[in-house]
């Protein structure tokens, strides 16, 4: 805290800098062996945790409290939620709070990578400590000013009150003195009791960006404008790993407005966050750059992935899923149980999910200016430190000489933590006269063709279910290219961080369990996508449980509860999950009671068991992901032609403490729409190494008329004694299997391959 005059946002944030990410850094995967002493949560990540009020809080003489938001905003509300937590603990009036966005500086602010539904999970308590420390420093300053014991003063709504005398001082009057007070140690902090919260859990605070977004005044990456700016688009190799053989740019240079052509070098080794390569067309406006790109004459060498074909690759995955793979979890003896079971007690099924594109509303875009041995970046990025590191590496600068300004993101879903597009902008800016700002834009077609795709997957499940309906064995074998292939050439087979997403960490009461992964090669850039491997794993497992319930002749809801068993807290390591989303297994055990709770809440909300009209069906699915528990019930209507109409969706979530319930409900509703989108419409496919889709006419997302009229959210177990779970990603995985289970309930037809589109 410092006494200040009113500062502009730009002046306040001058000098922001930093380092890198989470389980993935700018240089690759962070492995457990890299750490000698186990660290969990934010402390396990680059930058760790910072909870210093002198870093996050500034108070002006007029009493304006400025709070730094160090996490990027892409629709989750985190730019409001975390500063709101600080304001609540320090007793600041929200109407007298200003929020400013931090640039990349993990050394100053702690970890800034917003992948993994971690912002509130990792920084709720640090931000509470920031606010509490600021409050106690203000109280200590007032006590000194009045020469009274600090026990007689308390902060109340932007003032400090001396209760015996009734004297009051505003925050602005105390700011300079408070800044000179020692920052309280952690054991001296006095956090508020839950009943004293003014904002946390109350939905009293509007999003700080809401008015600007509503008026069209908010600045996203695509809105960036600077004097003298030029614009660039890139012609990239149509096949991942392809290279430029030769090109003729003479026609492009005749297009009015085109200024220059710049070669982007192809990536070396594993793709990581490197640009794909190609030719950048620089022009006075984006339209001219696109027109120039259209007339480039380029000959490509397609490289090793030129024959990649989705139909043939699916057959390869199917074959791989039918033979033993790399062991990820082994309990009991699955092979023996299968061999001894009569045919009537065996059930096997295979499930398919295609590649998926992130397709955020705002495609990737970055602006870079290089001047006087420094670089400045303006971009919509989930991982500012990774962008800073990429530009510093490209320009051979120290990271401190690269300033990254974080703008609003028009969606991210994991795509915008991979800063290849920022690196491209730096390459082009380096080729222009010094001081020229370069705005490098991806079109929608660029975004669809050159995304870091969600993995394609075949999931094979085999089970033995005895005559009494008890599941005696469970085999889950995943065949899909791994995210590790981004960082290690030739990497095959899912890593623990992927298998621990709804595959190995299943808590069911089954004596024989085996989970394997097939070692298949990647032929595209495989990246993390909202909820990552939970999507294919939960789709398969949750559909399979419904099939087992039907085979047993039991109600799906009751069968699932019986399979989960009684409420208990399980050490994730007992299920072979040594990763646990980087969280402490003591703080975050797998709690089957909480899982049962969301199943019961979703089913109750949907009226599970009620009589339905002909052609209607209810389907259930549930999932544990990112330390939260979710369950979804979907009601569908399927007409005589096989057209699927989603009537209603009931979603239950237990994320522990609910900091901003309105944002939680919004994330749940968005997760429902996204989950239905990937279930009903979305698919990326390859032919001759090339993505076949190009825009929203053929890479479909859910249209308005196909969306459910009713989405009910049921928030369960607002327990502030629990550590917080994630919210942004957990809603997605149960949606597709709940939909497919509802289709079976309505029609008697199983869906094991996505997207559904129509029931045959």
The percentage helix is 25-40%
Shape: globular
Number of strands: 31
**Averaged pLDDT:** 95
* Quaternary structure: single chain
Q: Please outline the major beta sheet.
A: 7 strands, mixed
Structural class: alpha+beta
For the CA atoms, what is the radius of gyration?
A: 27 Å
pLDDT < 50 stretches: 1-35
Beta-strand residue fraction: 15-25%
List the total number of helices: 20
Strand neighbour order, sheet with most strands: 12-13-10-20-17-18-19
Tell me the distance between the termini. Answer: 65 Å
Could you characterize what this model shows?
By secondary structure, this protein is an alpha+beta fold. Helix content is 28%, strand content 22%. It has 20 helices and 31 strands. The protein has a seven-stranded mixed beta sheet. β17 (365-371) and β18 form a beta hairpin. The longest helix is centred in the N-terminal third of the chain and has 28 residues, at 119-146. The radius of gyration is 27 Å and the shape is globular. It starts with a strand and ends in a 13-residue tail after the last helix. The model is unreliable at 1-35 (pLDDT under 50).
């Amino acid at each position: 805290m410092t006494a200040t005059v009113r500062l502009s946002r730009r002046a306040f944030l001058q000098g922001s800098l930093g380092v890198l990410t989470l389980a993935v850094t700018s240089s690759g995967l962070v492995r457990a062996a890299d750490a000698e002493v186990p660290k969990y949560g934010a402390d396990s990540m680059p930058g760790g945790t910072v909870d210093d009020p002198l870093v996050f809080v500034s108070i002006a003489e007029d009493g304006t409290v400025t709070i730094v938001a160090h996490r990027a905003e892409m629709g989750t509300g985190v730019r409001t939620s975390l500063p709101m937590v600080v304001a609540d603990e320090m007793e600041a009036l929200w109407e007298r709070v200003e929020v400013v966005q931090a640039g990349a500086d993990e050394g100053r602010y702690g970890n800034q990578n917003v992948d993994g539904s971690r912002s509130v999970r990792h920084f709720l308590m640090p931000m509470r400590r920031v606010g509490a420390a600021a409050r106690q420093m203000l109280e200590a300053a007032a006590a000194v000013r009045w020469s009274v014991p600090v026990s007689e003063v308390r902060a109340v709504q932007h003032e400090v009150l001396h209760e015996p005398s009734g004297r009051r001082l505003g925050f602005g009057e105390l700011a300079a003195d408070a800044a000179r007070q020692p920052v309280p140690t952690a054991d001296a902090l006095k956090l508020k009791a839950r009943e004293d919260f003014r904002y946390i859990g109350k939905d009293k605070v509007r999003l700080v960006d809401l008015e600007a977004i509503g008026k069209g005044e908010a600045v996203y990456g695509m809105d960036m404008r600077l004097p003298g700016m030029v614009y660039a688009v890139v012609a990239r190799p149509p096949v991942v790993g392809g290279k430029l053989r030769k090109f003729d740019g003479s026609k492009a240079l005749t297009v009015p407005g085109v200024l220059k052509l710049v070669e982007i070098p192809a990536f070396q080794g594993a793709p990581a966050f490197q640009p794909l390569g190609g030719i950048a067309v620089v022009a006075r406006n984006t339209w001219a750059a696109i027109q120039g790109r259209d007339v480039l004459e380029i000959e490509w060498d397609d490289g090793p992935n030129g024959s990649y074909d989705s139909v043939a690759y699916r057959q390869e995955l199917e074959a791989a899923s039918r033979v033993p793979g790399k062991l990820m979890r082994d309990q009991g003896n699955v092979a023996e149980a299968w061999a001894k079971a009569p045919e009537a007690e065996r059930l096997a099924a295979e499930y398919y999910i295609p590649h998926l594109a992130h397709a955020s509303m705002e495609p990737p875009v970055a602006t870079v200016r290089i001047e006087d041995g420094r670089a400045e970046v303006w971009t919509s990025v989930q991982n500012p430190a990774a962008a800073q590191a990429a530009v510093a590496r490209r320009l051979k600068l120290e990271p401190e000489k690269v300033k990254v300004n974080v703008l609003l993101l028009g969606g991210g879903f994991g795509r915008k933590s991979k800063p290849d597009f920022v690196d491209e902008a730096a390459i082009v800016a380096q080729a222009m006269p010094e001081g020229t700002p370069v705005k490098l834009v991806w079109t929608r077609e660029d975004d669809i063709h050159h995304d870091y795709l969600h993995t394609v997957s075949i999931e094979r499940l085999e089970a033995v279910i005895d005559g009494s309906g008890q599941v005696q064995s469970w085999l889950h074998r995943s065949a899909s290219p791994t995210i590790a292939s981004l960082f290690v050439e030739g990497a095959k087979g899912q890593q623990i961080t992927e298998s621990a997403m709804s595959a190995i960490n299943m808590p069911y009461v089954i004596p024989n369990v085996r989970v394997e992964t097939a070692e298949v090669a990647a032929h595209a850039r495989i990246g993390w996508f909202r909820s990552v491997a939970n999507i294919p794993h939960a789709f398969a497992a949750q559909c399979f449980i419904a099939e087992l319930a039907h085979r047993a002749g039991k109600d799906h809801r009751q069968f699932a509860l019986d399979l989960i068993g009684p409420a208990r807290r399980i050490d994730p390591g007992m299920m072979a999950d040594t990763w646990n989303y980087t969280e402490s297994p003591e703080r975050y055990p797998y709690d089957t009671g909480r899982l049962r709770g969301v199943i019961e809440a979703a089913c109750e909300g949907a009226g599970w068991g009620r009589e339905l009209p002909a052609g209607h069906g209810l389907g259930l699915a549930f999932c544990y992901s990112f330390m939260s528990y979710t369950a979804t019930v979907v009601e569908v209507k399927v007409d005589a032609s096989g057209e699927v109409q989603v009537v209603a969706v009931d979603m239950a979530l237990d994320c522990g403490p609910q900091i901003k319930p309105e944002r939680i409900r919004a994330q749940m509703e968005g997760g429902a729409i996204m989950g239905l989108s990937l279930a009903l419409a979305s698919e990326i496919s390859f032919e001759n190494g090339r993505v076949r889709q190009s825009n929203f006419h053929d890479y479909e997302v859910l249209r308005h008329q196909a969306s459910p009229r009713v989405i009910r959210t049921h928030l369960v177990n607002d327990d502030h004694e629990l550590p917080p779970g994630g919210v942004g990603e957990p809603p997605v995985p149960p949606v597709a299997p709940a939909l497919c289970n509802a289709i079976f309930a309505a029609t008697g037809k199983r869906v094991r391959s996505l997207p559904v589109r129509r029931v045959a």
